[in-house]
Specification:
heterodimer; A: 213 residues; alpha/beta; Rossmann fold; 2 domains; 5-stranded parallel β-sheet; 12% strand; B: 508 residues; alpha+beta; 5-stranded mixed β-sheet; 16% strand
Chain lengths: 213, 508
């Protein structure tokens, strides 16, 4: 197992552990270190928030915490747009709570005491989710920065042509000549580094989906 | 009919003809004989005796006798004394005289008969009146005797009822107390205000307020107050008083009763106490919340143990093996294992804290308490509970709440076992003393019974045949009985079903 992890792509990922039981935090850190992973531990949800930096990794969160509970922390992170994958842990077999946190997007729910394999599977899954999410985010950021270079007129033209309007229709809609629409369209494709109109449509679609409703 | 008519005729004949004739004949004969004797002493025909005869006949014989005697007298006088003598002819001189006599005789006869008749009527009326008075008097005496008898019976009744009874006038002053009340208070009489002075000082104000209110409003009085007995001890009584109202709706008297509620109050309090203790225990024994929190308490250190155990293995597997980290991890393992066993010790302590509450326990009264406790449940489940207690059962040294819990478990199991049988749901709880060494309690049901292989496992923890059971009842019961150095087992019942039994030694 440990060898697998050493060669894992998310080598620089960190496991953030939040549990009020110091012995559990320590034990889990010890185990993760023995597996060659980076682990950081926090005694409470508040500590975790105070120390928050966007680093690749996942969160192992105890459901029952003094002060802000695990469930509340999950909700707060979601509201703040922080999408770190969360693995819940609990010593209580509380079915309604499991259902709630899983619905809210938790990666896995581990009942204490859990097996090493269970934990590793959950962490790997969480790391994969995190890294693909990060790649996605990077691409989105790139598209966004290219979008930012467009002029307002180019943006209008892009909006209409990606809706499937012809150059002629776009021209009449924007009160422009067909020639100038063609010109703007060329600029948009160049600036957005799109190979074709279909490529451009895909990009705008991704940005639209990523934007919070 | 014919005979009756003849009879009536003959009676009428005697009444209206023969008797008057005889009476008239007698008087006229007497008058005739006396007149014959005296006629020569007076110059003129002496006829006054005949007038007497007419009067006598009318008086004694009635009107008919009077008329007959007038006729007889006239004929006799005319024949014997009026000239010409010895002839019925009447000469010129004597005509007026004779007519005068006849008229006088008739008048006399009429007056005499009428007088006689009215006098008879008066006498009859008087007799009747006397008879009536006598009758009335007898009736009155009869009803007075009846009233006295019913009053005596009522008195006896008020003494026979095992209740304290008093009565008071409209002014609220007591004028009669029954013997029970007097005996309770140890007083000769409690008239006036004396009874109310027996109330507990704390209750007296409240009672007087309620009594005043009742007397003013006419509403009945009801409440529980303490009353002092002859030895100065206060007991709780339910005191009730109702007004007796007259036909016009006005209150005439007040009747009061005192019912002793001391025992009931004590029993209620004991019952509430027992219920509280039982619910407290069942709360502690109840698996739901407790199991969850024990699980949490145990799972926390177990998680740390597991994580460290895996870590230890990983440190040793690494190449080269990290002996230092492995050994510090092993140290953590030991610490966390100790923490887990501390949790187990704490859980055990939770169940053991009753150890010091042992005292002298009367099993019979525990059983009776329990029967009272489950009475409603038994009725609802159509189970008849029989109790056969050994009156000479010695007291044992035990924890009453725990033994109560065992009894409750056994009885509840017995009732559950009978739910499948439609008829004859009978549960018998009996106590016996087994020699001088131990007491023996049996709970027998008429349920489905326990087969031998089930009997092997029935006392195991988490063994249950019930849909909603947790399988801890009998396991806990056996633990409790064994903690009292006794034995708990199951045997086939005498009349089908099963018989759960336990013994507890007198000297543990």
């Amino acid at each position: 197992m440990s060898e697998n992890f050493d060669r894992a792509p998310a080598l620089h990922s960190t496991v953030f552990i939040v549990d009020d039981d110091a012995a559990i935090c320590e034990g889990l850190c010890n185990l993760l270190e023995s597996l060659g992973m980076d682990a950081v531990r926090f005694g409470s949800a508040e500590e975790f928030i105070a120390d928050w930096q966007d680093r690749p990794g996942c969160l192992m969160l105890d459901a029952r915490l003094p002060g802000m509970t695990g469930v509340e922390l999950q909700e707060k992170l979601r509201q703040s747009g922080i999408t770190i994958p969360i693995i819940f842990m609990t010593a209580h077999g509380d079915v309604p709570m499991v259902r709630k946190v899983m619905k809210a997007g938790a990666v896995e729910f581990l009942a204490k005491p859990f097996e090493q394999e269970e934990m590793i599977a959950a962490i790997r899954h969480a790391f994969e989710m995190d890294s693909s999410r990060r790649i996605e985010q990077r691409e989105l950021d790139a598209i966004q920065s290219r979008l930012d270079t467009l002029t307002p007129r180019e943006r209008e033209v892009m909006h209409l042509v990606t809706q499937g309007l012809l150059n002629k229709q776009t021209a009449s809609e924007l009160n422009l000549s067909e020639i100038s629409v063609k010109l703007h369209r060329r600029h948009v494709l160049d600036k957005m580094q799109a190979e074709s109109l279909a490529d451009l449509v895909k990009m705008t679609e991704r940005v639209r989906k990523a934007q919070p409703k | 009919m014919e005979a009756t008519r003849a009879d009536r005729f003959s009676r009428a004949f005697v009444e209206y003809w023969l008797r008057p004739c005889a009476v008239a004949g007698f008087f006229v004969l007497v008058a005739f004989l006396w007149t014959l004797l005296f006629q020569h002493l007076v110059s003129y025909p002496f006829l006054f005796l005949f007038l007497g005869a007419v009067m006598g006949s009318a008086w004694f014989g009635g009107r008919i006798a009077g008329i007959i005697s007038v006729i007889l007298s006239t004929l006799t006088i005319d024949y014997f004394f009026i000239p010409p003598l010895y002839s019925f002819a009447v000469n010129q001189v004597a005509q007026t005289y004779t007519v005068t006599f006849i008229v006088c005789a008739f008048v006399m006869s009429w007056v005499s008969a009428t007088r006689k008749r009215s006098e008879t009527a008066v006498r009859e009326a008087r007799d009747q009146l006397e008879l009536r008075v006598a009758e009335r008097t007898a009736e009155l005496q009869q009803s007075i005797a009846e009233i006295k008898e019913s009053e005596r019976r009522l008195r006896t009744l008020t003494e026979a009822i095992p209740q304290q009874i008093w009565s008071a006038g409209v002014d609220g002053d007591i004028d009669h107390c029954n013997q029970h009340l007097l005996e309770y208070a140890g007083a000769e009489e409690l008239n006036g205000d004396k009874l109310f002075l027996l109330l507990h000082p704390e209750d007296e104000g409240m009672f007087r307020e309620a009594w005043e209110h009742s007397r003013r409003s006419g509403e009945k009085l009801e409440g529980e107050w303490r009353v002092r007995n002859a030895t100065g001890v206060y007991r709780w009584f339910l005191i009730r008083s109702e007004p007796q109202k007259g036909v016009d709706g006005r209150i005439e008297r007040w009747y009061g009763t005192h019912i002793d509620t001391e025992e009931r109050r004590r029993a209620e309090q004991a019952l509430i106490q027992a219920q509280m203790e039982l619910s407290d225990l069942s709360h502690r024994l109840g698996m739901g919340e407790l199991a969850a929190s024990i699980a949490h308490e145990l799972n926390q250190p177990l998680m740390a143990v597991t994580a460290n155990a895996y870590a230890c293995r990983e440190w040793l597997r690494a190449s080269p093996a990290n002996i230092e980290r492995a050994s510090t991890t092993a140290e953590k393992l030991v610490q966390e294992s100790r923490r887990a066993s501390d949790v187990v010790a704490r859980v055990r302590a939770l169940f053991r804290d009753e150890a010091d509450s042992r005292g002298s326990v009367d099993l019979n009264s525990l059983i009776q308490d329990l029967v009272r406790l489950i009475h409603d449940d038994a009725i609802r489940r159509k189970v008849t509970i029989h109790v056969e207690l050994d009156p000479n059962l010695p007291a044992i040294s035990a924890d009453p709440v725990q033994i109560q819990q065992v009894l409750l478990n056994l009885v509840t199991n017995g009732m559950d076992a009978m739910m499948a049988v439609p008829a004859r749901r009978e549960l018998t709880i009996s106590s016996r003393s087994k020699g001088t060494a131990e007491v023996h309690v049996l709970v027998q049901d008429c349920g489905v019974g326990v087969n031998p292989e089930m009997a092997q496992r029935i006392f195991d923890p988490f063994f249950t045949t019930k849909e909603h059971g947790i399988g801890m009842g009998l396991a806990i019961s056996r633990t409790i009985i064994e903690a009292h150095d006794g034995k708990l087992w199951v045997a086939p019942g005498n009349s089908g079903g099963s018989s759960f039994q336990f013994t507890i030694p007198l000297q543990p």
